[in-house]
Recover the amino acids of this structure.
């Protein structure tokens, strides 16, 4: 395993459609999953998508846990989600804070569905379905955007919803 370099906004892969994963037993895919988990953990991320490390695959990790970036995040074991999609969602949306390892120094109030039903393959290629809510649903939607060439800035309703990391930290710590 090794920590990977996270690419930054402006790199063309972040604005491209990622390719579906077809070979789940590929040793390089399994190594990529392990490296993504290590990279997200080292960067205090709650998720990371393969395109963020210059790998154009429909794969991301959700690894929610409390940190200085997200002090109220729920704790869960890191999970690989391959060829993910939303198959249903609530009508209700909520606005909440998001940041991105590929967009350092900025935070935004981003509207997302509160509840989503998702489908994906796990690292063994087995099809999974589950219902995600609130913060974990937000992570899924954020990472899915990366697979479709979008970043959270594209989802802001207004420039007034954009903050520096410093201002965000002062708001959540007061």
């Amino acid at each position: 395993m090794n920590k990977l370099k996270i690419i930054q906004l402006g790199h063309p892969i972040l604005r491209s459609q990622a390719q579906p994963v077809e070979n789940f037993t590929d040793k390089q895919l399994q190594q990529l999953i392990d490296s993504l988990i290590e990279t997200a953990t080292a960067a205090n991320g709650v998720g990371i998508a393969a395109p963020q490390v210059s790998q154009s695959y429909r794969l991301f990790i959700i690894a929610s846990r409390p940190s200085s970036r997200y002090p109220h995040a729920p704790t869960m074991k890191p999970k690989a989600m391959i060829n993910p999609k939303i198959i249903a969602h609530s009508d209700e949306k909520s606005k909440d804070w998001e940041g991105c390892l590929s967009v350092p120094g900025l935070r935004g109030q981003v509207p997302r569905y509160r509840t989503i039903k998702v489908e994906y393959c796990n690292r063994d290629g087995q099809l999974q379905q589950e219902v995600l809510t609130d913060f974990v649903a937000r992570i899924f939607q954020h990472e899915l955007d990366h697979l479709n060439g979008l970043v959270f800035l594209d989802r802001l309703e207004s420039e007034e919803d954009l903050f520096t990391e410093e201002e965000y930290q002062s708001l959540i710590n007061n």
About this structure: The first helix runs from residue 27 to 42. The CA atoms of residues 3 and 137 lie 25 Å apart. The chain has a mean pLDDT of 95. Residues 12-172 form a domain with the Peptide Deformylase fold (CATH 3.90.45.10).
